[in-house]
Amino acid sequence: MPPTSRLRHPGRLAATLLTGSLLVGGLLTPSPAAAAPSAAATTAVRVNQVGYLPDGPKRATVVTTATQPLTWRLRDASGKVVASGATVPRGADTPSGQSVQVADFSSYRRSGSGYVLAVDGSSSVPFDIRANLYDALRSDAMAFFHHQRSGTPIDASLVGSAYARPAGHLGVAPNKGDTSVPCQATVCDYTRDVRGGWYDAGDHGKYVVNGGLSTWLVVNSFERAKRAGKDAALGDSTLRVPERGNGVPDVLDEARWELDFLMRMQVPEGKPYAGMAFHKIHDAAWTGMPTRPEQDAQPRELHRPSTAATLNLAAAAAQCARVFRPYDAAFAERCLSVARRAWTAARANPALYAPDSDSTGGGAYGDTNVTDEFYWAAAELYTATGESGYRDAVTGSSWHTSPTAFSAYGFGWADTAALGRLTLATVPHGLPAADRDRVRASVTAAADGYLSRMAAQGYAVPVPADGYFWGSNGEVANDAIVLAVAGELTGDKRYRTGALEAMDYLLGRNALGQSYITGYGEAASRNQHHRFWAHQLDASLPHPPAGSLAGGPNSALQDPVAQEKLAGCAPAACYIDDIGSYSTNEVAVNWNAPLAWLAAYAAERPSTGRQPWTDGS
Ligand code: 9MR
Questions:
Q1: Which whole-number Å values give the CA distances from 77 to 123, 133, 260, 338, in the listed order?
Q2: Which of 4, 33, 305, 375 would suit a FRET pair with 63, their CA atoms being 20 to 30 Å apart?
Q3: Whole-number pLDDT of residue 605
Q4: How far does the centroid of ligand 1 lie from the alpha carbon of residue 499, in Å?
Q5: Beta strand 127-129 pairing with 51-52
Q6: What are phi and psi for residue 168, nearest 5 degrees?
Q7: Which residues have any ligand 1 atom within 6 Å of their CB?
Q8: How far is the CA of 283 from the centre of ligand 1 (A)?
Q9: DSSP assigned state of 48
Q10: Which atom of ligand 1 lies at the shortest distance from residue 582's CA?
Q11: Tens digits of per-residue pLDDT, 133-162?
Q12: Residue 550 to residues 474, 480, 576, 603: CA-CA distances in angstroms?
């Protein structure tokens, strides 16, 4: 399938520049002290800057013009060479625009810290080899969502004083509040209480489409861990959330914060479009940088309902019904009732599209093809209920057999058919075995595609050379999820290797030698675009908390800072750690969600062999 609206927007570029969130005091202001290229770019030996798992792949990429194999040497903390070998020349690497070689030291499995890989006179940054490598990231990446909570104070006892803040958008001046929000003119004549949820990103908007996808990923990370018998690590009292100790797994507590908000976005009975979901709620005009949530004085507005938002709500709520049932049956029942109503309303209004043009004060999240959302929602409702109406909607959808459900550009907020396939591939249901096997085969085929692409690239990235669009790091993490699920389905270790190498990319084995995750690695992003974590603009404010993923390289250069600083960049190098570069360096819930998923997966100590299947297959 060609890139859809979320990927590249020829018509969107101008609008983005005019309305982009760098508006400070009404003027387009270049942010001060644009970050210099990362320090790690000075070393030609690119590694995962945190390190490697003892039983995992261990590869590095070396930037070099040499065409013959070079000798690599792995030194321990004392400087002693503990392993050595020859690199494999790869020549020109199109996405990075570099000439590279690959060093593979996977066979070295001894734990330790302070390892350095030396090749041809250059040394990598020091890194660890240890089994608990991802334990901290598992909780930090998930804690991102608590930091992003709207409508509740963020307490110093959970996050530390630098990140504590009063509740945002509860109606305390100067906030107008999300407690009684009117619609935009002509959309509705009443107000709604849409408090809570997560702020989407560096802005204070809350968007049902992106919220639904992100919630699904957070809940899915728990569901997958439970299938593998490893959910204890995500259980009650494992995360820094206020609901610790309530008997419900903390990851589900976090997801519920958003689910409650998403359900508040449903149009009430008796009103036009009852059962549909408002597409989004955000400020009437973009606020400046920085603006802490509780200082946002803009009027808040509900935007017209959309079929896409309604189906995202249906999918996330149906998944909620299935996964929450053992922990809170009443909540699960409420989720199911919301999901059913949303589905029925979407069927009655199948083409209420959110326009790309609606991007004043918030992102558009426009989407004019919702057949994939119908498929995803049907798959979730079918696996939640087993009912024939939903089953027929699954089997009758062209997405059920379409070879492009997993596109070369991965899944995302506008491309959700893959999510339906992942659910049908992993959750027990009543479709014929042949059908289920075909769905599973489609997951492994997609994963095979990502593996071949990784094998063909010097930095082992699962995205194609033209796939570095807004949020490419989220795409890398999404692809890694597909790889991980393929590993679960087949027991084939190559898929786990691929998923872990995607993590290597995010943590520094990339064209810039940049770790895109705050707090992880010697040269890590720390100036992501955010209205509160805006240290680069105001030294009294914090950097983003550890575990925050930057959007990543975006070859379309869709903000003024990127245009000024990155002109002529190779696709994989179109990134700058500057708070003004919202098109390469924002944070967002739909990027941290797959990161949290992947970190939880990577943190598990693997079982040998194939995972048991609850449906006995
Ligand atoms: O992730 C979104 C990306 O796919 C779009 O191309 C881009 C422009 O419309 O918007 C991105 O989402 C932003 C949203 O519109 C507003 N909140 C911040 C999001 C991340 O940058």
A1: 13, 17, 50, 57
A2: 33
A3: 85
A4: 25
A5: parallel
A6: -105, 145
A7: 6, 9, 12, 16, 200-201, 203, 205, 363-365, 470-471, 582, 586, 588
A8: 15
A9: -
A10: 21
A11: 999 999 999 999 999 999 999 999 999 999
A12: 9, 17, 10, 21
The predicted structure's pLDDT at residue 611: 47
CA angle 179–237–478, rounded 5-degree value: 75
The pair phi, psi for residue 260, each rounded to 5°, is -60, -40
Burial class (CB within 10 angstroms; exposed 0-12, middle 13-18, buried 19+) of 228: middle
> What pLDDT is attached to residue 607?
62
Closest CA to 473 of 449, 442, 504: 504
CA distance linking residue 206 with residue 150, whole number of Å: 9
In this structure, the number of other CB atoms found within 10 A of the CB of residue 125 comes to 21
**CA-based nearest residue to 362, from 163, 184, 602, 123:** 184
Q: Which residues of the chain have pLDDT under 50?
A: 1-41, 609-617
- Candidates 449, 65, 315, 525; CA nearest to 441 is 449
The residues, ordered by sequence, that sit 6+ positions from 11 with a Cβ below 8 Å of its Cβ are 356
Give the sheet arrangement for strand 88-93, strand by strand.
45-46, 59-63, 98-104, 88-93
Give this prediction's pTM: 0.94
Q: What is the pLDDT of residue 615?
A: 42
Of 464, 469, 498, the residue nearest 57 (C-alpha): 498
